[in-house]
Amino acid sequence: MKRFGFSNLMLVLGLLFIYLPMVILVIYSFNASQLVTVWGGWSLRWYGGLADNTQLMSAVLRSLQVAFFTALAAVMLGTLAAFVLTRIPRFRGRTLFGGLVTAPLVMPEVITGLSLLLLFVAMGQLLGWPAERGLTTIWIAHTTFCSAYVAVVVSARLRELDLSIEEAAMDLGARPWKVFFLITVPMIAPSLVAGAMMSFALSLDDLVLASFVSGPGATTLPMEIFSAVRLGVKPEINAVASLILLAVSLATFIAWYIARRTERSRRLALQEAGANEVPER
């Protein structure tokens, strides 16, 4: 009989430390009591009350909108930056460019948010844009922050690719842009999806950057929750958080299922190709 060792104990404790608060949050989202810390029985009243809480739901929709466009922009910019860093080994200013790409990873968000705020204020005074801070400035700030994560993830994948496949395509007459979109992008698709999901989660979770660069009428969900928590946690917040956990879990499961089916199809295709090969004499 296999013993329950120290490593297994640490694994269980680590998982409990991470996921037990989420389970408690989901349970208390069904609490009938108006006091979050007092259990009053099972009820769906707070889920039904979300439709009437227009302020909270508007914040949710704004956060989802910003997170979606941030994921798209961060994947495009981060992929281009990763391609430059991995496929152009030598150019003037490469070290500086690599440092600028990865700087948001180690820069405190307070410093990044303050610098972006000063940038937007200076641009507004000199260029007249942006006239006021809102969802656009939040999107720009989140894209700047998330592009660094995408660049790191995609760079790791690009370094593992076999360049002979792309070189063979160019030897057959394919142009570089066609090789990139038809060969390189499909091979790095898992890293693009991972970068998009990471960017979406980081944007949806961000509070510090949004607090600096937001304006009137551009309150995101983390800002709404933070301002509400200072006056006491409301039961509707537990319900919204539970719905977000459900949506993230479903998205993760769908991505895992698609990746699993793709990998299985690839293995079957390789097996069929190997079985159809004629042995050499």
Automatic annotation (TrEMBL):
Describe its membrane topology. Answer: Multi-pass membrane protein
Gene Ontology biological-process annotations: transmembrane transport
Q: Which Pfam families does UniProt cross-reference here?
A: BPD_transp_1
Q: Where in the cell is it found?
A: Cell membrane
Q: What is its main location?
A: membrane
Specify the domain of life of the species encoding this protein: Bacteria
Q: Which residues form the ABC transmembrane type-1 domain?
A: 60-255
CDD domains found in the cross-reference section: TM_PBP2
User: Coiled coil: which residue ranges?
Assistant: none
InterPro entries, per the entry: Bact_Polyamine_Transport (IPR051789), MetI-like (IPR000515), MetI-like_sf (IPR035906)
Cellular component per GO, a single term: plasma membrane
Transmembrane parts of this sequence: 9-30, 66-85, 97-126, 138-158, 179-202, 239-259
Q: Which UniProt keywords apply?
A: Cell membrane, Membrane, Transmembrane, Transmembrane helix, Transport
Q: Which family does it belong to?
A: Belongs to the binding-protein-dependent transport system permease family. CysTW subfamily.
**What's the protein called, per UniProt?**
Putrescine transport system permease protein
User: What is the species listed in this Swiss-Prot or TrEMBL entry?
Assistant: Azomonas macrocytogenes
State the taxonomy lineage. Answer: Bacteria, Pseudomonadati, Pseudomonadota, Gammaproteobacteria, Pseudomonadales
